[in-house]
Amino acid sequence: MQITLVTTLLDASLYPKDALAELYSMRWNVEIDLRHLKTTMQMEHLSTKTPQMVRNDYYVHLLAYNLIRILMFQSGKEYGVSPLELSFCASIQHLLNFSSTLAYADTVKQHNIYNVLLYIVSKERILIRAGRVEPRLKKRRPKSFGWLQQPRKLLQKQLVA
Questions:
Q1: Is there a contact between 44 and 73 (Cβ–Cβ < 8 Å)?
Q2: Whether the predicted pLDDT of 95 surpasses 90
Q3: CA proximity to 76, closest of 65, 91, 64, 92
Q4: What is the C-alpha to C-alpha distance for residues 35 and 31, in angstroms, rounded to an integer?
Q5: Cα-based angle 142, 144, 150 (whole degrees, multiple of 5)
């Protein structure tokens, strides 16, 4: 199979074909990371109204995302696992499960509990499928409901009447 890659990285000595091919193959991880930001972390629809609050929401989501990735990195480093092989969703779930225990423990216990958390996260591996290609299509069709274009109270009164 031949792939034509168009790039602005033109210096063949700085950017050999093999390095560009590896970079291109890693694009799947970018898609997964964006999905985690939007879907897993419930960032598809932000309910804030002002631009400043939207920015704040965005930054808080990025901060939380980076904290989860740091947990995954530390877990992988400690137990010899690539962070890309660890489950993002499982890492969130385990951190949430451990958060109250970590919050109320003293410093020595926090260290021990955090090490247990790292161990558990390191065991939550995902299947790496090299060369994976997925269509960018929606699986489920949207519901055929119209848009809410009048006040909810008014529509409720019309339904009851």
A1: no
A2: yes
A3: 91
A4: 6
A5: 115
